[in-house]
Amino acid sequence: MATQFPYTYYSCPCINPTDSTLPEQDDTFDPSSPRAAFSLYPLEHLLYCTECHQVRCPRCTAEEVVCWYCPSCLFEVPSSTVRSEGNQCTRSCYNCPQCTAPLAVNPLDPPESTSETLTGPFILTCPYCTWSSLDIDLKFDKPNNITGQLSGSKRPEPSTPVDTPDPDLSRASSPKPDPKTRDEVFTALNAFYKNQITHDVDAPGHAFAEQAFSSPHSISRLLNLYSTGKKLKRQRPKPMSEALTPADGLVLFDPESELDTIKRTAAGGWEGTLGGDKAAINTEARFVDDARPVASLLRTKRAKRCRACRTLLSRPEPKISTTRYKIRVVAGSNVPRVGLRPLGAKARATAVSGLGGLGAEVPSLKPLLPSHFVLTLTNPLFDAVKVTLATARDTTGPVKARVTILCPAFEVGANTDVWDEALARDGGGGSQGGGGVPEAGKVWERGRNWVGVVVEVVPAGDAVRGEVLEIAVFVRVEYEAGGDLDGAGKREVGFCNPIWSSG
């Protein structure tokens, strides 16, 4: 919840269930229900769909990746490279395994003058915590292509499997180095089982024929599948052999390594082990001395579409160095902005800003005594709108109160040029109202594109001290849309406006 009171939240239409099998519920919005916590957002966090004429929250939008880029070097990475190399930068961008700060490539023996050429070996150093790759005995021959040098030092190239029908003969004829890391074990197991499936699927009616593995029998399987001749009987699959050697991905329990781990933990204590956040990025290391540099994770620029009609709501510029948007339909430019302030406070400008009466003192609500607030609606459209407000007579939640909107229906002017309001003020017009006694059916104050009405709140006698009184107000906006193709348009927005109550 926000810390400034009063403040305004807007309810997204996705809170209403669309399943017809669910029982019918009351249409009155309950801001105290558990489901309401997932549909209330500030106006600045919402988008607007011009086809559905509804606000869209992050749950109502579908994201599409526009581009991948590295946040360190700001180079764009193709999606094919991301699929093959993973979600990491393939250049020389690495982070410190201790403090996650970007690492710098420096020569081990820096030259005495700047005119001399840098010569190896090179190391990775952290300018923040003074960690270096010398702590794990890691040096590089070149200052570039750090990823290639790291992969060559810790991961041998996988050997090509021999194309023989018997996997046992294949293992005996092509010796492979034993895998050491988790990635190597997974690669060995994947190659071992895929090799069996590829060589076992010889018959057209084999059980594994439906699986999309690369095999020279793929075309024959498809031809037999759609042929009109005699159907072949499905053959029983041959039992698959399991990995029996470390070269195939078998990992054997080594009691000596476990005892060594226990001794190192007892000697170095918990300070020598990697924490939960560091162990998540260094899956191969248990201790601080074994932590390796971590490649910078890639980030994405994403476009957003409406889940209902697939209309594009937001699309950033594909250029990495810019933060501008090519398309961005925000809700603040299409739905009225609502603000709330105590009656008599001189803070209409801040009340319209979206956080309600920011900077204005909110009085305490006293039980059984009426309190008056000014609900201000600002029209961002270039057409005059007709607004209808509705609220429940009695509020729900820990604080019970009776709420009355003195003027539930009114018109708001168009968002025209600000000079029109200045000229009208000089001619005796401009903002009107703001004085006297609140009356039913009468607008309290009015401006160029905003209107303020009075809301009366009477807390119940058993009001809880220090709790928040939440008032759900339903707004219906109707106006004649510009253009001959659109015709008349209706806009409906539900939002919650909590008021601070100290009993």
UniProtKB/TrEMBL annotation:
Keywords of this entry: Acetylation, Coiled coil, Cytoplasm, Cytoskeleton, Isopeptide bond, Phosphoprotein, Ubl conjugation
Main location, first listed in the record: cytoplasm
Region of interest (Disordered), residue spans: 147-182
Cellular localisation: Cytoplasm, Cytoskeleton, Microtubule organizing center, Centrosome; Cytoplasm, Cytoskeleton, Stress fiber; Cytoplasm, Myofibril
Superkingdom, natural source: Eukaryota
Pfam families xref list: Dynactin_p62
GO CC annotation: dynactin complex; stress fiber
InterPro entries reported in the protein's UniProt record: DCTN4
Family that this chain belongs to: Belongs to the dynactin subunit 4 family.
Subunit: Subunit of dynactin, a multiprotein complex part of a tripartite complex with dynein and a adapter, such as BICDL1, BICD2 or HOOK3. The dynactin complex is built around ACTR1A/ACTB filament and consists of an actin-related filament composed of a shoulder domain, a pointed end and a barbed end. Its length is defined by its flexible shoulder domain. The soulder is composed of 2 DCTN1 subunits, 4 DCTN2 and 2 DCTN3. The 4 DCNT2 (via N-terminus) bind the ACTR1A filament and act as molecular rulers to determine the length. The pointed end is important for binding dynein-dynactin cargo adapters.
Protein name: Dynactin subunit 4
Source organism per UniProt: Trichodelitschia bisporula
Source taxonomy: Eukaryota, Fungi, Dikarya, Ascomycota, Pezizomycotina
